[in-house]
Sequence to fold (244 residues):
Amino acid sequence: MKRRHAVLLGCALSLAAAAPAAAAAEITIGTDETGLNPIWSPATVTIAPGDSVRWNLTSVAAPPLKHDVASITVAGHDSWSFEATYPAPEGRFTFTAPGRYRFYCRFHSSGTTGMAGTVVVGNPPPAPLPPLSEQKFANDAGPVTVLETGGLDTTRPKLSGVRVRRAARGARIRFRVSERSLVTVRFRRGGKIVRTVKLNAAGSYHGTLRAARRLRAGRYRVTLQAEDLAGNRSGLRTARLALR
Fold:
């Protein structure tokens, strides 16, 4: 019985020694030009260290598109690139170290968007999280109310009916603005701005500016300008004011 076990064990060891090592694999990545913009197909592949990736750069478009492959530099890893010529040769690269390798076509990508892809080698650690300013949170998916955005509203607010009169407790001011705006009122004397007042107004406005009580007696040139929520500014409106 012992002799039989020894013979079987010897046969098993011989078969194990004779078994060939697992051959390195090779995966092919082609181009998909059926959409509006070309993409890699597949765009992401997972391989083991020692495996290779082959890029088939042949274009089927009419006239043919020009493709190439370049790597995004990864610290501690090799970089590579394959220039596209006609007919386009196949590019091949063997990956020996675990990691995530980004590649792209320099003619149809900005490097991280467009015709870009990823080769995942082995079981690398997860990619670091983006900064908090770039992360999406649950409440980001809620409805967004846009009040007014620069670039959408290009209409300037209009100021009209501007009147400024002396009052016992300052200066009485009246005007009309065509939309919700911040109206800046400046009192000028001798070419210099001596007082500035900002008013949040919409439609007709009339009130007393008590800040004018601290102005010295004399003649003033009063200018008004409105700025809406989108940053559009009205033209300047001018009035005269005499204080005693």
Remarks:
- The two ends are 129 Å apart (CA to CA).
- Residues 25 and 216 are 90 Å apart (CA to CA).
- Helices lie at 2-18.
- The chain has two domains: 24-123, 159-243.
